[in-house]
Design goal:
With 247 residues, the chain is mainly alpha-helical. It has 11 helices and 2 strands; from the N terminus they run H-H-H-H-E-E-H-H-H-H-H-H-H. The chain has a two-stranded antiparallel sheet with strand order 1-2. Helix 2 packs across helix 4 and helix 7 packs antiparallel against helix 10. The longest helix is centred in the last third of the chain and has 23 residues. The protein is elongated and about 65 Å long. Keywords: DNA-binding, Transcription, Transcription regulation. This is FCD domain-containing protein.
């Protein structure tokens, strides 16, 4: 692809590619490039724009972009080729393995209104975080929250999503509204069905842990605005991944 062809390819991607927000650079960059691939804006067998072009359009570092491309390569969506005519090329995605468990997961996801679920989840989580910080936690409650955070930090990959769920459920339970906690438990079950349909990404988990730590710190310091903002950003990162993989 010469420079004129590459410029034309980037222009074709202009409706999708845009600068990401600083808080969720990896997740939002991944979601946007996933959308490029899934929409067929770069057809199978053709090359994505050069790394420098993608990084500039997305407003991310080359290091972050390479991590994004590595995820897509691991998922079989792109391949890297070396040499004068090398680059990152779009591949036809591999067929998912047949099987009852996979079919059942697809059926469950197919019945979910993803946008409604993600928005409701954000409302509940942001509200719970703000309430916990505004009303304050006693010593026992603060200990429970710190313990739940520690469990996510010590979790193996196989256990991470369960520990992550327990941390978020703990926050919902501590906000002082049993009704909110019950609603959150229900929506979290749906969110977990959606999460089961996408891969665990180490970079995303590391970022989530940073947000978890900032969230707990804000709650324990009584910073309601800070707690709400961190939780809103955290929910947005998860939503970006889910939209990218499931849309």
């Amino acid at each position: 692809m010469d420079e004129l062809q590459e410029a034309a390819a980037v222009d074709r991607l202009a409706p999708v590619l845009r600068p990401v927000r600083a808080g969720n650079g990896f997740e939002e960059a991944l979601a946007q490039i996933l959308q490029v691939v899934r929409l067929g804006l770069v057809p199978y067998g053709e090359r994505l724009p050069a790394e420098r072009e993608l990084a500039e359009r997305l407003g991310v570092s080359r290091v972050t972009l390479r991590e994004v491309l590595k995820v897509l390569q691991d998922q079989g969506l792109v391949e890297s080729r070396r040499g004068r005519y090398g680059g990152t090329f779009v591949r036809r995605p591999p067929e998912a393995p047949a099987g009852g468990a996979v079919d059942e997961l697809r059926r469950r996801i197919g019945r979910v209104d993803v946008e409604d679920t993600l928005r409701f989840r954000e409302v509940l989580e942001v509200g719970a975080a703000g309430l916990c910080a505004a009303h304050g936690l006693d010593g026992e409650q603060a200990g429970r929250l710190r313990s739940a955070l520690g469990a996510t930090q010590d979790a193996t990959l196989a256990e991470y999503r369960r520990m992550d769920t327990l941390l978020h459920l703990t926050l919902a339970e501590l906000c002082g509204s049993p009704s909110l906690a019950a609603q959150y438990a229900a929506v979290r079950a749906t969110v977990n069905d959606l999460l089961d349909g996408i891969p665990l990404l180490v970079r995303n988990l590391e970022h989530s842990q940073q947000q978890h730590s900032a969230l707990v710190e804000a709650v324990l310091e009584g910073d309601a605005d800070g707690a709400r903002e961190v939780m809103r950003e955290h929910c947005a990162g998860t939503a970006a991944l889910l939209r990218g993989f499931l849309s």
